[in-house]
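Homework help board

Subject: predicted structure for assignment chain

Our instructor gave us this sequence and asked us to write out the predicted structure in token form, then describe one feature. I got the tokens but I'm not sure how to describe them. Can anyone check?
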Amino acid sequence: MIASRYDSPVHVTEAIVQALADAGVEYVFGMPGGYTGSIFEALFEHPTIRVVQVREESIGSAMAEAYGRVTGKPVVVMGQGEWIAGNAGQGFLEALLGASPMLILTEMSDNGPLSHHAPYQGGTGDYGSWDAIRALEGVTKRVLTSHHPAQAVQQVQLALKHALTGQPGPVAVVFHGDALRGTVGPDSQPRLYHTSAYLPGRSHALDQAAVDAAAAALRAARRPVVIAGNGVRVGQARAQLAAFAQAVDAPVATTASGKGVFPETHPAGAGVMGTFGVPTANHLIGDADVIVAVGTKLGPVDTGDENRALIDPERQVLIQLELEPLNASWTFPIEHALVGDAAVLLDALRAAHGPDVSAREATAAARVAAVHEAHGEPVTDAFTADVLPMMPQRLITLLQEIVPDDTIVTCDAGENRLFMMHWYRTKPGGDYLQPAAGGGMGYSVPAGMGAKLARPDQPVLSVVGDGGFAMSLHALMTAVQAKLPITVLVLNNGALGWVLHGMGPKAVGASFDAFDYAAIARAIGCEGTKVESVEQLRDALKLIGTLDRPHVIDVPMSLAVSFKDTVQPLASERWKRSE
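My token output:
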């Protein structure tokens, strides 16, 4: 029996906020504007939902994407229609392609009965207006449109359901002005109930026969490898992944977006696979006779544009664990496709496999060590030279040495991301987020802020190039105001490195004038260190985890290393030439 949510009338905006509170929503990121102002007002009476004001909407969407990826739970991005649809699209795109749950609440600025006459800012899609619904449809999983108060409340509940069901993603509710006026109550149509009645629970459904068949194939494997994707993170299945890998004695490689779900410093950690991955992972996968892919679509960049030397269903047995049925056997035909919750499937496959690993040629740790010895990159002077401008390999070596194990590292787009993905080895207890789905610049700093809200007790390090940092400088105002003490490491080479190195001698629009980013940060209210020696950099990095406000570290970087130095031999020619 489920009782009606209301026994007396309440204002529709109060009911919307109650629906969010019922669902356990903890944060709203955004800026009041348009008709959403009345929802922000209703939040005044609900201190359990914290409003984090951002200075521009893309900051809120990137924060929400990172929060959703780390926790598997949606938060709200809210603001006026044209700026939510126009400014915040980058975070929505990353969430859509990377499967981060998110709830977007916005409006049409439609001016009620005059909406068909194209009022100022109106987004109804009528003649002379812009179209809020179509603008959001391209970067979201689904868009719901509310015309009336009770419909508005229920669609907020259903949007949360859609954001969490199947492959998670961003779902938008677009309110007509009339939907946010008036009351709802016991006589409302549709009738309103508690939000929990709509939310999906963790599915424990299993096709046991399919699990048993996959387990038999894996039990007979001589050289199995596990490939772990971002779905392990969003599905909160890291503990199950670790237990599974240990039980079946298999090395674990990750996709680019999955980096961080299994510690690369672990003896069985093979590192990132694919075009910009590491030789150890690619050689282990290419040599495997059975591959278990969990929480990954096995997309082209991860598979060297589907290079058969890496993954080949004609010579390898492929087992895929996937939440979304459409993603199973999408890029490769899969012999054993297991559809369901990653944590549940990993536990079930581990139990069905049992303790027998007698078929293995060697232990996972021994295989990783042997392949690394044969194919790992040599340690050159670039990893040890204490000179400025600094080589990226040396900077990352320092990070490896100094950064606490439980740090959440966020990266940006461009060469800085490739350098970190290629040379930084993730540690147990931490995490690693990068824009490996949409891949837009300006992601790292707001993602670090979202991660800090999701895991306030863990240190956060945002690694960003000077190009991406300039796009997100204003995020530091929110970080100061919201008391989010993250460390921001600016790799300052005075250029869009990937663009500059991709264009070569005919580079256009790829270089920057010199700016003192540490001084700008201090002016905003952050700590700021402009690095002039390696010892000064060491001292600044040692403050990670001890801060009471954001700290920006501006490091002069060499341009002697390019993205081409991280491209793997199995990559197609398009990646070896340019961006």
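Reply (TA_rk): Your tokens look well-formed. For the description, you could write something like this. The mean pLDDT is 94. That's the kind of observation they're looking for.
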